[in-house]
Write a structure and sequence with these properties.
Elements lengths: L5 E4 L8 H16 L5 H18 L6 H16 L5 H10 L10 H9 L4 E5 L3 H5 L10 E3 H4 L6 H11 L3 E4 L3 H9 L3 E2 L1 E2 L16 E2 L11
Parallel strand pairs: 1-2, 1-4, 2-3, 4-5, 6-7
Helix pairs in contact: 1-2, 1-4, 2-3, 3-4
């Protein structure tokens, strides 16, 4: 049984279906611009570039700034001649409509009955404040606060300094799993669609299919 001082949750892979939400926004943009482009292709290109920028950017830049650069590069690659800054503003304006997974309210709520809970996420504070994560969290650690992005070790160390140790982190994405393991955190990975671990990546000791399983692992 696990006995952390706080249980942290990733947001945009573990709690919120960001792919579904952002792809819907890209579908609307494709309709507005009369493009014959698959919204999934737009999302995949933007998301991959966004994550690559997060891994390499120096000095630190906000999520909004990186999202804009990633969309500019995606549009250039696809030869789409439109205002990427305006489209980024629209994309991020829809973040309050990105759906959370159905197991979040009960799953996180059960954990919160016995342990402090918090968010640990790559996002700007104002964007997180507009996100419906499915539970009323009172504490959050963001990349904007830590001035770096997961999977960099520094954001996990910052979370420990703010929230205490030991933490139990609940990631879904491969890079968050790898980063939290390398930082020495205990983790329980929540399996989510299109979040498969890469071959050769460090396997988590514990995985669950539904957040409602998590409380039963804690003591």
């Amino acid at each position: 049984m696990l006995s952390p001082v706080c249980v942290t949750f990733d947001v945009y892979s573990a709690l919120v279906d960001s792919r579904r939400g952002a792809t819907a926004a890209f579908a609307e943009l494709a309709h507005r611009h009369a493009w014959n482009v698959d919204p999934e292709e737009l999302f995949d290109g933007w998301d991959a570039r966004n994550k690559a920028l997060q891994a390499t950017i120096k000095p630190f830049a906000t999520y909004k700034a990186l999202a804009r650069r990633a969309l500019e590069d995606t549009y250039e690659e696809l030869e789409l001649d439109v205002d990427a800054a305006a489209d980024t503003e629209y994309l991020l304006s829809t973040i309050d409509r990105w759906p959370h997974y159905s197991d979040v309210p009960e799953g996180v709520g059960s954990v919160a009955e016995g342990f402090p809970v918090a968010l640990l996420t790559n996002i700007d504070d104002d964007l997180l404040a507009r996100t419906d994560v499915g539970f009323a969290f009172e504490r959050a650690v963001t990349s904007q606060q830590a001035r770096c992005y997961k999977p960099h070790e520094r954001i996990y160390r910052y979370a420990e300094a703010v929230l205490g140790t030991p933490l139990l982190h609940v990631p879904a994405s491969p890079r968050d799993v790898e980063g939290s393991i390398e930082a020495g955190l205990e983790i329980v990975r929540i399996k989510r669609p299109v979040q498969s671990l890469a071959p050769g990546s460090p396997p988590p000791e514990l995985e669950i299919d539904d957040l409602r399983e998590l409380a039963g692992l804690l003591s």
